[in-house]
Amino acid sequence: MTLTYRGRLAPSPTGLLHLGHARTFWIAQERARTAGGQLALRNDDLDVARCRPEFVTAMLEDLRWLGLRWVEPMITQSARLPLYRAALARLHATGCIYPCTRSRRDVLAALSAPQDGEETNEPVYPPQFRPPAGAPLSPLTEPVAINWRFRVPDGEKLVFLDGHAGKQQAMAGREFGDFLVWRKDDMPSYQLACVVDDAAMDITEVVRGADLIKSTFRQLLLYRALGLAAPAYYHCPLVIDDQGVRLAKRHDALALRTLRTQGRTPEQLRAEWR
Prior knowledge:
CATH architecture of the largest domain: 3-Layer(aba) Sandwich
Structural class: alpha/beta
Oligomer: single chain
Number of helices: 8
Distance between the termini: 34 Å
């Protein structure tokens, strides 16, 4: 394990990078530079339905245009599936996970209030859908054809100190519930892949957007279950548009590629962030 600062850039090639990505990635580089450390680059391309090669090409061009530098060949998640499968096997062996046949519609129908359905902020899984604790687990199949969920320790308060947002805490089973670690399309979840990779890459601090704070609590549970050391975290404020809505890849007007064609420079963008 390295003792020096090591951060990472981890874009997902599901669209063009926008101004929010640029600011977060620049903050990551500045924190690495200030600490005398380095950045690694990871291509988070596990969303098979949405990731496209042309977005990888655009991503690399935009990162270099912005002035970002990394220290080694890019790591690509889709080439690392055996690592994630090994982690799934460890979780299965220790009884931390269970098979889940419930659909997203089942989960939402069981809840009393609407909730965000994105994987990184998925709804609290209804406890009545859980199998009994200690029940025998079905074996892992090859390929995996069923969802697998991590059983969170209900009632445990999780706390971490964020480098920007300060002390963060959440109650397992109340503010977040059992979450996916492997999908029935035989692909790892964002949560599992992120933990496995950040540990394997010796990342000492994860710099990312504030919308992923809740994901950190899930990931801390995975680090513990897998016997891995967790990195520090620094969650950046989100960039919003003129209507106060956080930027997404559908905001083509604020895509770095669009700003480049308009003649904007990286120096101009950075001056606006200060």
